[in-house]
Amino acid sequence: KNQVEQSPQSLIILEGKNCTLQCNYTVSPFSNLRWYKQDTGRGPVSLTIMTFSENTKSNGRYTATLDADTKQSSLHITASQLSDSASYICVVSALTGGTSYGKLTFGQGTILTVHP
Amino acid sequence: KAGVTQTPRYLIKTRGQQVTLSCSPISGHRSVSWYQQTPGQGLQFLFEYFSETQRNKGNFPGRFSGRQFSNSRSEMNVSTLELGDSALYLCASSLSGTGYSGANVLTFGAGSRLTVL
């Protein structure tokens, strides 16, 4: 069964500090992995998308890494800001059948709270 | 450019009723996918439509259905509502669909919050 597990479930940090969120998956065959940020009451917003051949991708203060061999990904946030307080969701897409029509599997998310 | 628009934003139904939710994608996007988000289960994939055809489906009962029109707008319908159907229903649009990487970013709407009493 395809699964995506994220850790920690929640995290509290002080403004200006760095943090790393983890994502382990068992989705197969793998197509791509995405990180999303979801503010309370809003839809998720894409941060990064990585395919099998990519092991690092950055978007401003957000840097995602992917190890397709160990099926692990991490999202590193540098110099956190109060606006980083949100849920961060790891999403893995699987190849289905003979085409790339991906069936998405979502992690439960990590709730990040940044305190001043 | 306009984002993904979902209507209605909030609605309350009673058990046994049916509900239809609407999603207008970003202009030019041909793929619309639907998701259910609950505190207990998180985000779950419902189905994806591309050029009026259902291309992929998650593990939900047949009470959940959808369709896509020629202008790419999509609707999802839930019949015989149950208390457990209370959730935030999100749709996302993209150029090519959920299985592609690179520029094929999913853009989500703000969601329709359904409460079943």
- Indicate the overall shape of chain B: globular
Class per helix and strand makeup of chain B: mainly beta
Measured distance between first and last alpha carbons of chain B: 37 Å
| Cα end-to-end separation of chain A | 41 Å
Helix content of chain B: under 10%
- Cα Rg of chain B: 13 Å
Question: What count of helical segments of chain B does DSSP give?
Answer: 0
Q: Largest protein interface?
A: A-B, 29 and 27 residues
Q: Indicate the radius of gyration of chain A in whole angstroms.
A: 14 Å
How many strands of chain B? 11
Number of strands of chain A: 11
Please count the helical segments of chain A. 0
How much helix, percentage-wise, in residues of chain A?
A: under 10%
Query: Which structural class is indicated by helix and strand composition of chain A?
Result: mainly beta
What is the chain-wise order of helices and strands of chain A?
A: EEEEEEEEEEE
What is the chain-wise order of helices and strands of chain B?
A: EEEEEEEEEEE
Mean pLDDT of chain A: 90
Write the layout of secondary structure elements.
The complex is a heterodimer of chains A (116) and B (117).
Chain A: E1 4-7, E2 10-14, E3 19-25, E4 30-38, E5 45-51, E6 56-59, E7 62-67, E8 72-77, E9 86-96, E10 99-106, E11 110-115
Parallel strand pairs in A: 2-11
Antiparallel strand pairs in A: 1-3, 3-8, 4-5, 4-9, 6-7, 7-8, 9-10, 9-11
Chain B: E1 5-7, E2 10-13, E3 19-24, E4 31-38, E5 42-50, E6 53-57, E7 64-68, E8 74-78, E9 87-94, E10 107-108, E11 112-116
Parallel strand pairs in B: 2-11
Antiparallel strand pairs in B: 1-3, 3-8, 4-5, 4-9, 5-6, 7-8, 9-10, 9-11
